[in-house]
Amino acid sequence: MRSPSQAAAPRSAFADLPLLAVALVWGSSFLAVKHLASAATVVPMLVLRFGVVLPLLGVFAWRGLRGLGAAQWRGGAALGGILGGIFLLESYGVVHTSATNAGLIISLTMILTPLAESAVSRTAIPRAFVGAAALSLLGVGLLTEGAGLHAPSLGDLLVLGAAVLRTAHVLAMSRSRALRGVDSLAVTWVQLAAATVVFALACPFAGPAPWRVAAHWGLAQWALLLYLALFCTLFAFFVQMWAVRATSPSRVSLLLGTEPLWAAVFGIALGGDRLSALALFGGVLVLLGTEAGRRAVVPSQSAHPAPEPALGTARNVHEAIG
């Protein structure tokens, strides 16, 4: 007979493939957004994308939504406002920088979140993590130098702002008493709906109406929109719900952490991104730093029972930017 550990190994390996697929589609979504939207159509694109996601996700979330109280609706809506800001910063950032830069810079969320949690809870953070954070920040500095050392581009700064806002979203989510123990599917739907309201309110001031943009899209644009909605959001969401029960949270974190690598692969191979030797070295430092930082904090988490996944966070509903 096989031991329990031997029996668990195939199950974990089986869970790895869908998780890697999620990391892959998240990495590709930066390039998808860059091809789909321009500075004038970012907000209409987001309205259309969420207009596809919300009804489909609502079919599965309906039962949980009926059980939400007023405080939970308000809490989810407040977090959704932050989520809307994240989508806007990421999308505009991708438009104004390369898909490779965007994917690597947004990965700083994995470094910023533990640092912020440590500051808020006033707990010490491992020295190894501090070193990894410094390595990542150095990498971002080199990555954004372009053809010569200069200030980061507008797009780089917008994506960096999105990483900071993602960190704030994760902290707010974890500290929201009203949302503790609440169905994650329902909370995610409320947040996405609130973010859509943000986009709808911004539409009159940020480009043409969504229906006008939709009317001018061809088959390629609609294919990209459906890819972002169905794969980068819905597929990623449900895979995580399943995987966090089939494997450990630390394994999920490590596998999904390959997203910036895939962003660089797609950006360079398909997007035509060209990095100088110094910028390429910076990208490698970002990958090494975020991976080392994640490994420095994840082992301590794995000692605890697997929690209900925080699928309402910006990264989980992906965003991706997507």
TrEMBL record:
Assign the protein's first listed, main location to one coarse class: membrane
Pfam families in alphabetical order: EamA
Residue stretches making up the EamA domain: 16-143, 154-290
Q: How does the protein's chain sit in the membrane according to the entry?
A: Multi-pass membrane protein
What UniProt keywords are attached to this protein's entry? Cell membrane, Membrane, Transmembrane, Transmembrane helix
Q: Where is this region: Disordered?
A: 299-322
Q: Which GO terms describe its cellular component?
A: plasma membrane
Which subcellular locations apply to this protein? Cell membrane
Q: Which domain of life is it from?
A: Bacteria
Q: Where are the transmembrane segments?
A: 12-33, 39-61, 73-92, 98-116, 128-151, 186-207, 219-239, 275-293
Which family would the database say this protein is a member of?
Belongs to the EamA transporter family.
* Stated name of the protein: Drug/metabolite transporter (DMT)-like permease
Q: Which organism is it from?
A: Kitasatospora kifunensis
Please spell out the taxonomic lineage of the organism that makes this protein.
Bacteria, Bacillati, Actinomycetota, Actinomycetes, Kitasatosporales
